[in-house]
Amino acid sequence: MMTLDDAVIARHTVKAFEPGQTVEQDKIETLLNVLQNSPSSVNSQPWHFVVASTPEGRAAMAKAATAAFSYNEPKILNASHVIALCMRSDLDEQHLEKVLEQEQKDGRFIAEGAREGQDKSRRAYVDMHRYELRDIPQWMEKQVYLALGGLLLGSAMLGIDATPMEGFDQRALDQSLGLREKGLTSVVLVSLGFRSEKDFNAALPKSRLPRNEIFTFI
Ligand SMILES: Cc1cc2nc3c(=O)[nH]c(=O)nc-3n(C[C@H](O)[C@H](O)[C@H](O)COP(=O)(O)O)c2cc1C
User: What is the whole-number distance in angstroms between the Cα of residue 117 and the centre of ligand 1?
Assistant: First the structure.
């Protein structure tokens, strides 16, 4: 595996994939592990991930890359795997109960009152976001972007080429994957695979604002 420093420098957004190549399943398993174990505010885990690894699956994702987003279509069709990172449309009672039950099952509640305490503090945050900040969807979406960060860094560490994409028709993807009837909506896509010779981004230098612009040391 690459060192973290190497991976950070080596990774770039791949603009063209070589079709017909498949990322090894053990690496995919590692990335699923990264997604499953991604941190989230009050352990809310307000996400769902759809993983396409077949031509049919990729075609279902590509239905969202039309019109203004058609430039992303080949990055979906020629990838090995495409992951749709989705968020819940609401942080409802059922989901809060599910998370609490899982924490119980996983052995998180040892001290007396731990379960009630956890439930209460999580609900306090949920209520704050629902009633005061009124930003439940934005709050959930932030958690999904944390998972995106882990996924991109994890892919880089494993030497897997990746493309994050916000450039797709969310409504079309939700429809194609049947997300809304499940209380979900799509946020961002990530294609994984092998860069092709047409990946012009591989030859270009990275561009980032200088350190003196982005860091303050006190
Ligand atoms: C959330 C997000 C959405 C992006 N959407 C697209 C996209 O739809 N299509 C694309 O080709 N690149 C997309 N990019 C790639 C960015 O342009 C790229 O990350 C940025 O220019 C930095 O370059 P690098 O990733 O090669 O280091 C996206 C990146 C992020 C993080």
Answer: 40
